[in-house]
Design goal:
InterPro entries: DUF2891. By secondary structure, the chain is mainly alpha-helical. It has helices at about 10-20, 45-50, 60-75, 80-90, 95-105, 115-130, 130-160, 170-185, 190-200, 220-235, 235-245, 275-290, 300-315, 325, 330-335. It is globular and about 55 Å long.
Length: about 350
């Protein structure tokens, strides 16, 4: 994708959709980090999780399905919509969903929290989409959604400490996705749970240094994800004060090198490819932070420059020839450029 093409159109949407269509049924190579209690837990991916087995791993397959639904909502008449519809019809069947349910009955916290947060995002996307086919898929997915939500509620309720790393186990990133799902589906109990847990974990945090990031091969900034979550939870006044205490180093005058995108030296390296996603997620988290600040806040110009800089760098390398990035990165690009995390931007 050209670096200066920062918005979504049918051409770029088709490129992103094709990334998923190329691997949604590609079983191998496969990465499955899963606790095995018996032979039932050691099977080919298509048998363990018959809906979400492609795209290298379960969570990438889940958010690949989300990507197809999201783009079909935006471009219902696009050339890729027929292929996307066919792929979703093959995946989202009652029989295959029962296979997923059986897997989660054996392993209730499989892919917790990252993967199941994306499963709830898929459910939220279908919930909002006022289309006959979306309603059919929503009904098919609902039993799995309910089981996963029940397991997740138990997990969050018992969680004592947040994970502050920058990959799949990070708590703040997942809670942001989960909170959006809870609000979209009008699940008041889950909304209260996540809001209360966010306050418990992060409200008193002070003096975080973004200069220590990335902490490793991050695809999500621990610090910005935390701020992006808290802007969902706090009022404008409360969030403005909280951000001042949490990230006091944000310049009030625009500084070009305040927060630089992370470069990828070896695009074939699966771990280094995370940095493409880090640039994209930083961009949408910065935009989320801006959305909750008052218009006269002196930090907005600096934050907006950093968001655009990260957006441009991240989008430049989305359509990659290397499976290390191509199996998942389109999701982060679509989440960013369709403004999924900004509720006022949700499409009907």
């Amino acid at each position: 994708m050209p670096a200066d093409n920062l918005e979504i159109n049918e051409t770029t949407a088709a490129q992103f959709a094709q990334l998923v269509l190329d691997c949604i049924e590609r079983e191998y190579p496969h990465s499955n980090i899963c606790w095995a209690d018996s032979d039932e837990d050691i099977k080919p991916p298509r048998q363990l999780t018959p809906v979400f087995y492609g795209c290298l791993d379960w969570h990438s397959a889940v958010h690949g399905h989300w990507l197809l639904v999201r783009l079909m909502r935006h471009f219902p008449e696009a050339s890729f919509s027929a292929a996307a519809k066919q792929a979703l019809e093959q995946s989202l069947t009652p029989e295959k969903i029962q296979g997923e349910i059986a897997h989660f009955q054996r392993l209730p916290f499989f892919e917790c929290p990252y993967g199941i947060a994306w499963l709830l995002q898929l459910a939220a996307e279908l919930h909002e989409w006022n289309h006959p086919q979306a309603k059919v898929w929503r009904v098919v997915l609902e039993p799995l959604e309910k089981l996963i939500a029940s397991n997740l509620h138990h997990w969050i309720d018992r969680l004592q400490l947040p994970n502050r790393t920058g990959t799949h186990n990070q708590t703040a990133f997942a809670l942001g996705l989960i909170l959006d799902w809870a609000r979209i589906t009008e699940n008041a109990d889950f909304t209260r749970l996540v809001e209360n847990k966010a306050r418990q974990f992060y409200l008193s945090d002070r003096n975080y240094s973004l200069q220590f990031e990335p902490l490793g091969y991050d695809f999500s900034s621990p610090g910005l994800a935390q701020a992006d979550l808290m802007r969902r939870v706090l009022s404008t006044t409360a969030f403005t004060d909280w951000l001042t205490n949490f990230l006091p180093q944000i310049p009030t005058e625009n500084t070009v090198n305040w927060l630089e995108p992370v470069k990828v030296d070896n695009p074939q390296d699966y771990m280094q490819s995370h940095f493409h996603g880090l640039n994209l997620s930083r961009a949408w988290m910065l935009e989320g932070i801006i959305s909750k600040l008052p218009n006269d806040d002196q930090r907005i110009e600096t934050l907006r420059f950093a968001a655009i800089h990260h957006r441009r760098n991240g989008l430049a390398d989305v359509v990659s020839q290397h499976y290390a990035a191509s199996h998942w990165l389109g999701t982060f690009a679509v989440y960013l450029i369709t403004n999924r995390g900004l509720q006022k931007q949700y499409v009907s």
